[in-house]
Amino acid sequence: MKSLIFATNNKHKLEEVSHILHDKYKLISLSELGYTDDIPETEPTLEGNASLKAWHIYNKYNSDCFADDTGLEVDALNGAPGVYSARYAGETHDFDLNTSKLLENLKGETNRQARFRTVVSLIINGKEYRFEGILEGRIINEKRGIHGFGYDPVFIPDGYAQTIAELPPDLKNKISHRALAMQKMADFLKV
Ligand code: IMP
After folding, report:
1. Are 151 and 72 in contact (CB under 8 A)?
2. pLDDT at residue number 37
3. Which one of 50, 105, 142, 170 is at 20 to 30 Å from 123 when CA atoms are compared?
4. Whose CA is nearest to atom 23 of ligand 1?
5. pLDDT tens profile 113-126
């Protein structure tokens, strides 16, 4: 079985992506490599950060790898919080505070259109490939539901009546921005 480093320590993401790759690749997480430092996320775009993280790990371990970066882009906020989604309300990366700040900034706003966007950067033999997944939807006025994480309680995907936090987690894993981007990578890897 081939192996591929996934530049993350998020167990949920590892499981989700292993599944999408049909367990044909052995995914190696950063903690399995003993890598405990923060990977730099200093670029102003999702593309830049995914690429930066992937090259950082590729150059350190000289081994094929991929990294992802995700943001919530809200039209009425000119694409914010975007690349700053994790730290929208500060460096504590608190999901609940981030979501409250978003609702506050959208108070009275009628245009609620938004999307989650994931960018995956894959490096194979020193060549970079990029994949994107988008989930369109809208931001509601209050938090609803208990599943998922991040902005899930305020985001209703197009074609649904419930927030992602109210929908079954299995469904999220099929329709999500991250799943779509990873599926494109899986198609590329022909797994
Ligand atoms: P990351 O790049 O996957 O770490 O995502 C950055 C931030 O975007 C997270 O801290 C969350 O606030 C938000 N985010 C990413 N994916 C999701 C999701 O599937 N649902 C809700 N929020 C998400």
Report:
1. yes
2. 87
3. 170
4. 150
5. 999 999 999 999 99
Tokens of 78: 């000119």
Active site residue 158: no
Give the tens place of pLDDT for each residue, 23-41: 788 999 999 999 988 888 8
What's residue 11's pLDDT? Answer: 84
Q: Which of 103, 180, 177 is nearest to 136 (CA)?
A: 177
Which of 39, 85, 118, 178 most suits a substitution to test ligand 1, by most atoms within 8 Å of the C-beta? 85
Residue 130: what are its φ and ψ, rounded to 5°?
-125, 140
Type of residue found at 49: N
72: region left, alpha or beta (phi > 0 left; psi from -120 to 50 alpha)? beta
Q: Which atom of ligand 1 is nearest to the CA of 164?
A: 20
Which atom of ligand 1 approaches the CA of 98 most closely? Answer: 12
